[in-house]
Each structure stands twice: as C-alpha cells, then as structure tokens.
Amino acid sequence: MIRQELEFWFIPTNKIDLFKQEIEKNSLKNTTIYDVNGQDASSKLVSQCDLGLAIYDKDFGSTKYIEPIKIWEYMMCGLPFIISCEPSLNKEAINEGIALQLKPDNKPSDDDTLHNFISKENLIQLQSKCLQMAKKYDIKEVLKNNLFLFHSTRQQ
To answer: Is residue 81 within a helix (H) or strand (E), and if so which, with residue range?
Structure first.
C-alpha cells in the first residue's frame, strides 16, 4: 500500500466509463471522476490537488505526447507531477525533482523512488520549486530576458 489516505481525482478528457472500469479493476479507493469543461474549471480543480499525473495510455486515445498546457497548469498551481516517458519534457523539471518520469512501460524505476516522490513532506517541499519554475518560464519573463539580450547586443 502506498499511502492509504491518498485521494485520486481524475479529470479524463474522454472515455469516462473506461476510467471507471479501470478504477474498479485496480481496486482504487477514495476516487472521484470529474467531468470538467474548460481550462478555468480544470485549473480551479487542479489547484486543490497535491500531485499531478500526466500519463499517456494508448487505450484512452490521447496523443502520444502529453499536452504542454497540462504540465504548465500543474507548475502554475504548485503541483509536482508524475509523467510518462515524454521526450519533450523540460529536463530541468526532472533535474529539479518536480517531475517523476516513468519508464516507457509507465512504471516507476523502483518503488522507493515512487514512495519518496509522493511522500507528503516531499510534495510540500516541491510546491515552491514548481512555482519558481513556472515564473521562470512565464512568457513575459522569457520575452523580457530575450529583449534585454537583444538590446544589449545591439548597443555593443
């Protein structure tokens, strides 16, 4: 058992019945499936969570690569996240520890790594790192830095 007190909130984009079947098949307790429409409603719900999941599963018909907006939303809400083996994921997110990247078969490299990542203490510690990274890569900040570099090189 990982953490008995964990609640699982799912926000599937489709195939809600398949989610229900998988929850029952895997005997997940404390689960709720939300049918959320729109980015604002999704962000409001996500902001109440402790951990994000961005998992690709061929049975659910999503794209093979996780939508960057989901990762951005998690970071802006201060959520560390577990993610499928996603080649476009910013390596800094993994190096900073805010993302636990799964193996190609969607399993963690080992149980200890997963236990440590989802520990309450670790998740609390990672919240501020997520927010810092979201600010660092905010488009306004990126543009400001690029304009500064451009302006500096023109004056030389």
So the answer is: strand 81-83
